[in-house]
Specification:
Elements (H helix, E strand, L loop, with lengths): L1 H18 L4 H7 L14 E3 L35 E3 L13 H8 L5 H10 L8 H10 L3 H5 L5 E4 L2 E4 L1 H30 L1
Parallel strand pairs: 1-2
Antiparallel strand pairs: 3-4
Length: 194
């Protein structure tokens, strides 16, 4: 986070120096005008588990003040955890990156038909970047998606993009084939016992 703040400061200093817009010795020394503002930075904890979050959401909730006879707990500076529980949301329009598609897919990890419908109807899943494919393969517990990513990759404006719809179709076909093979094996085992 500090690196990102430093980058913002350096950018402001460079612009101010180019524009020669610094007034007074304080601004000249720092390179920052008193009217300059930084973009806020937040640390957010993302919970992507399948179960509902049942842990604490504030610092106070994990403290043990004992009997607090002296009332010191009233002076405690509480902080809420910036916790984003993926499974508590159905609408991810607040995200303007491919994180939206990752989170939407996570909510369908137990509903393969729903996931297939989601990806078929949403064009963005045909153009995911490398990082999003890697994250999805890990969080969906489907390492073959990442291992076989070259099959789903194409180039668009010199950028690699991956078609998760195609990956999902192949994944479903592989699972159906495995299911049939297991069923056949079970039938052979049953038949040999008779």
């Amino acid at each position: 986070r500090w690196v990102q703040i430093q980058a913002q400061l350096q950018e402001l200093k460079d612009v101010n120096k180019q524009q020669k817009s610094l007034c007074g010795s304080n601004e000249w020394l720092s390179g920052i005008r008193k009217t300059d503002r930084l973009k806020p930075m937040y640390t957010v904890c993302v919970y992507h588990g399948e179960d509902k979050w049942d842990g604490p959401r504030t610092l106070r909730e994990i403290m043990d003040f004992g009997e607090d006879v002296d009332g010191m707990s009233g002076l405690f500076a509480d902080y809420s955890m910036r916790l984003f529980c993926v499974n508590e949301y159905a609408n991810f329009d607040m995200f303007h990156t491919e994180l939206r598609e990752v989170f939407m897919a996570l909510n369908y990890r137990k509903d393969k038909k729903g996931m297939q419908k989601l990806m078929e109807e949403n064009e963005a899943y045909r153009h995911l970047d490398r990082d999003s494919v890697r994250v999805l393969s890990v969080l969906l517990k489907q390492p073959q998606i990442w291992e076989e990513r070259a099959k789903y990759m194409s180039k668009h404006d010199e950028q690699e993009e991956y078609d998760m719809c195609l990956a999902l179709r192949e994944w479903a076909a592989d699972e159906r084939a495995e299911g049939r093979a297991e069923g056949l094996m079970d039938g052979v085992v049953v038949a040999s016992r008779i």
